[in-house]
Give the backbone structure.
Amino acid sequence: MYYVTNPNIADENNLYENIQLAFLIIAWFLSLIGLIKAKSFEYRYLLVGFFLLTFAFLLREMDFRDTQITGILYYLTTPDGALYTTLIVFFPYIIYSFYRISSIFPVVVAFLQTYNFYRFTLAAILLIIAGIFDRGWITSVHSLFLEEFLETIAWYVYLIAMYYMLPHKNFMQYSVFYKAN
């Protein structure tokens, strides 16, 4: 592997980035399993959102620089095009959400009151802090290490949160989820 010949584990395409990619792939498969196991439309719709979100994150973390992809597909996988990729993926989802808001809203409100929402929030905060190091707003000798380390922790927390999104017996503590699932 690449990190055997290059001992800096935080470098591009090295150990931390490979671990992050593994966490995201597992989270993506967990969201797919949740989609298959969920019984109600409302809960499935919430899981579709996380499935698409994980897919967008996965595209952002994959490195396509050394591949033969060219043109618009390459641009959509670069950091500059990642915003457009996210918008393309989420636009139909958001439009349909407004169409079905009366049935989806109670499930979303119940989700916002769970511990799992706090896990996703913690992952988002860690990713924002890592982004500060990535953009160079805070610079130090260890900026690259701190950025990759925080991203790895964030994707691990995201993976744990996706695990708890799976429908199982002690899934959620609020009755809306018990009715929806």
